[in-house]
Sequence to fold (511 residues):
Amino acid sequence: MFNKVLIANRGEIAIRIMRACRELGVRTVAVYSEADKNAQHTQLADEAVFIGNAPPKESYLNADVLIQSALDSQADAVHPGYGFLSENASFAAGVESAGLTFIGPSADSIRAMGDKAESKILMKKSGVPTVPGYEGLETFADFKNAAKDIGYPVLVKAAAGGGGKGMRVVNEESELKEAMELARSEAQNAFGDERLLVEKYIADAHHVEIQVFGDKHGNLVHLFERECSAQRRHQKIIEESPSPLLTPELRAQMGQAAINAAKAINYHNAGTVEFILDSSPSSPLRHGSGQAFILHPSSFYFLEMNTRLQVEHPVTELVTGLDLVHWQMRVAAGEKFPFAQNDLHQHGHAIECRVYAEDPANGFLPSVGRLLQFIPPQGPGIRVDSGFAAGDEVTHHYDPLLAKLIVHAGSRAEAIRRMKTALDDFIVHGVITNIDYMRAALETDDFKQGNVSTRWVETKFGEWTPPQPDLRSLIAAALADVVFVGGRAQPAVSNETDPFNPWKGTGNYRN
Ligand code: ADP
Ligand code: ADP
Ligand code: MG
Fold:
């Protein structure tokens, strides 16, 4: 095992990784920007290295400074977390050529999956089902013909895309030109690469992803699925495992497809293969009305592979009993899996809610301010991964994720009840949160029946308005404000020029 690991990230995920390191007897080095001098992750590490100004480009995205910091602190490995440089092949290569271990897949694997067009071509070759569509087109005429052939609606997508950016749905030919121009300029701005692909838009879709894991000895297993269909603007807000949709047969087929995808790029370490499932009324999969589906073997399509640890990894940890970060470190250090696919099982049901500092009643604008009170829920089957404590400042520099609230219970219905209770008990004053919004979502019949497609939040759950706060919480909030002179939270939009800055308007980046 390593002696010391530098964690090239911040917030909850940096702390999550530090805990795993401590459990394995590994020393930790945190990195922090000007804005994170007093952040929890900076304080909790054995050592902390200052790496630059608040904008990510000048700190958490500065590969040279991160690698030099790892060398200076005599770390022997680097964990990239998620977001930032976690899927940057040159960073992974740079870490390795500095004589350090990158706790993640090889740079070649990252590169192979880094491009949505190239990876789709590779997946088709490897027999993994992909969404019907075309890659490598250039002229408008080519796109027009392709879209006609696929059949509207279609989706134009940035080949270099990520975080839901650079995607446009096109319902008919007259909209194609403008959609392409918008997607191209968004892609150019965010990724410096304007290439687009076009594919069938699956209007009623479920997002189901498979966690895969490989060691460096050629052993690959999957750790089952996560259902992530509850999304806003193509970004996940609630995730769960098992998926209410999968039959054992489909689970086995998707698991095998995910392993084939990983095999095609000689994958080791943790990765996620994202699939989209067609659940439209006209789909051969839908049976009867409402919730019962009969799933057809070819009903799922590869979307992309995320070559890193995923935000929603805790739900998999709770149902499989495996610590994914331990295993990331153990396989990176060369250990062989002591288990095979048949040894792995799903136990009970886990749900994760992403608690954000944002205002659902105001276009989900991020909300900044000091956390006057921050009291996460406790109790059986409740896990909270957070990078904040009371008194901390939520700034406009980074993703406004306050905490991931994860529950585990014997059944899906129990897990939903446990999550609702936990959300009720979560006390946050000083910033506006999406806690009430998520609780209301969980209370709908659609959610209870597992009848939530990727457009559900926007089309069926768009009319939600916040409840009037009760007297007790108003008094508590007012008292808290007096105690900690902080003032009321205001939604804020940053003037940052960084295209990835989540506080730029409402096009938030989330992993
Ligand atoms: P998901 O599928 O889980 O939503 P994606 O893979 O689509 O996640 O998006 C993550 C990618 O977005 C990262 O690998 C990275 O390339 C890019 N990214 C995320 N955050 C930043 C950032 N702050 N600066 C630059 N690039 C970023
Ligand atoms: P990103 O890298 O931004 O995460 P993805 O390809 O994973 O890009 O897509 C993000 C989300 O967009 C998916 O989870 C899904 O909700 C939606 N999406 C992507 N492709 C399609 C499609 N062909 N049809 C319908 N929805 C799609
Ligand atoms: Mg994705």
User: Anything to note?
Assistant: DSSP finds 16 helices and 23 strands in the chain. The chain has four domains: 4-103, 132-200, 205-343, 349-489.
